[in-house]
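Sync notes, pocket subgroup
Present: LS, DG
LS reminded everyone that the earlier model was apo-only. Rerun requested with iron/sulfur cluster included. Inputs:
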Amino acid sequence: MGLDRRDFFKIVTAGSASMLAGEVKAGANGGNHRFSDNFGVLVDTAICIGCRKCEWGCEQANSLAFRDKSEYEDKSVFENQRRPVPDKYTVVNTFEKPLDPANPYYLKVQCMHCNHPACVSACIVGALEKKTEGPVTYDPWKCMGCRYCMVACPFQVPAYEYAEPLTPQVRKCGFCYDKLKDGKKPGCVEACPNEALTFGKRGDLLELAHNRIIQNPEKYVSHVYGEYEAGGTSWMYLAGVEFEKTELPVIGSEPIPEITESIQHGIFKAFVPPLALYGLLALAMHTFREKQAEKGDNHE
Amino acid sequence: MNNHQIPAPVKAVYFTRGARILALIAGIGMLAYFYRMIVGLTIANINDQYPWGIWIAIDVATGVALAAGGFTTAALAHIFHRERYHSLVRPALLTAMLGYTFVVIGLLADLGRYYNVWHPVLPSMWQGNSVLFEVGMCVTIYLTVLYIEFLPIVVERFKGKVDLPKPLAGLNKIIELSLSIADATLNKLISVFIIAGVVLSFLHQSSLGTLMIIAPTKMHPLWYSAVSPLFFLLSAIAVGFPMVIFESLLASRSFKLKPEIDILSSLAKMIPFFLGIYLGAKFIDLTLRGAWPYLLDGSVESFVFLIELGLGAVLPIILLLNDRIRNSFGGLLAASALVIFGVAMNRINVFLVAYNPLYAEKPYLPSIYEIAVTIGLIALLILVYRAIVMIFPVISVPPSDGSNLVDRTEGSLVEVRR
Ligand code: SF4
Ligand code: SF4
Ligand code: SF4
């Protein structure tokens, strides 16, 4: 139900309870193919050489920092596991290659652009939005800075500008939406010299990923991370070891916002439950008032 | 109603020793608050892994829960017409009104862009999937309802007594007239608002419990349950009367009034019932989810869970089922304090202890600024409460037994946010 979330109130006014129930179900499971036309990126960690050019490309594309390319050759950053921060939407980390500990695998981290983004579902004002093309974007002018999106994100991606006193923003990869709209590749993909990042339609990427697995079974485990995780994501990964051994979290295939949305929609089904409660209480008030009046006559 | 139970402004010395200590704490808190507004959220120990700290867990979540005395008492007295509890309605209403006001003040400190706090009322930004949106809307409307419910008390205080000094004397008639109109209209409509207040409370009290369900992979299984909203609602209902009792006892102590033990004690009779339902629901839920093993794994979480329910629910039930304890000042005070402690702890547990984010380098502990703001707001709330009951007819004062009132508010320091 990615994009029709905000139609909730319209649906409510339409007053069809069953419609709502169906709506939630459809969003729940198996609907992955509906996202085939979304844009996505396949990150092949078996090819990635850890050059960090994607970090550079991202910072250029988003005007985050203007460092010289050579600065990204510094391998010492790999000593610590890094996370995306306000002025760095993507970082490359390492994870161990079992047969060759000296040369680790590399893993690029950024927003996954979930098919059913928990951050979007959580956002109180709709500052985060799932675009039809796939990206999850952020509008700082709507945002009130409650940070519920950060609580909600199962990949712990959004970062916050805590040091900013007046206009702090939630910061995360926005999938270079402006470039995407114009048919261009995102900054990081453009910068990758090794084709470790493949940009394309999610459906095509899945096909590509499974083909690579079939053709090189010794090189990859048979798992496309992001195909089902959290209901599917636009960014997906291939790896040579089980994903449990990487920093990517183990996440089931259920869309994260599923339960909260069913509860919300259940409570507000056409506003019937609140109104029913109101009616019930009004009735109680009336009944007890009469009783009291009868009693009151003898009492006071 | 009994004649000796007519609410009146309390006559007492405002700045007693206790009040001065509170003022100091409130002052420090306000400094910390303004400091946050100038330098931003860096002074809090929250980070990208722990985006929420005690300002959400205590100031907002616990604050809302402990303001539940407002709707529970209103329901009891106005909807179920238990007239004998009428004297408790106004203090509970005031607590709720101030409690929610301070929830908003606390929330503003926590919001990165606090000046956008009004955004959810714009239909163009409505986001019906967001639990927080629903909480925000309900709290906004409920706060308005609470102010409306409090209006009659203001009217009562000033009606027929408007006497502005010379330059403004011309306004006297106008104000008097608007007061009469307000009085007449409110009398007719007040039931509508009272029921609306109860419905709104049901909605947002429960929805607060839905908030963390969006983080299934981060929550500890002892607290992660799809029926968490039900627990939040049941525990809010259960803490409503203890809160009213606790306050009433402290107020009578502080203002040297005779505590209404008989009324409070019969109110307390209902607490084990509500707590029992809450406990029973928790028990069933833990069983159905097969979460019992987590209770015995010796973790910090299992320990605080046991304290939360053992000290905060089981023990007060036992205490209150005993007639002697329930009819004594100390017993009532202890039992109600325990329930308040338990519910406060539950909110802190759900929002902080149970929340285990990925990639966290160290667990969250509040900074001194966060603590200063939280405690400062509680102190300020008590001071404002004290001022209002001395100006407006809120507390039902039995015939006064003396004029020289000495304060003994040691207790109010622990008086928790409503
Ligand atoms: S898609 Fe754009 S914003 Fe996201 S990591 Fe790549 S360059 Fe950065
Ligand atoms: S990874 Fe997190 S921030 Fe990105 S779309 Fe998914 S929930 Fe939102
Ligand atoms: S911090 Fe901003 S973007 Fe995130 S949920 Fe709150 S309002 Fe939405």
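DG: The CA atoms of residues 30 and 376 of chain B lie 7 Å apart.
LS: The pocket of iron/sulfur cluster (ligand 1) is lined by residues A 57-58, 61-62, 89-90, 110, 173-176, 186-188 (CB under 6 Å).
Action: DG to write up.
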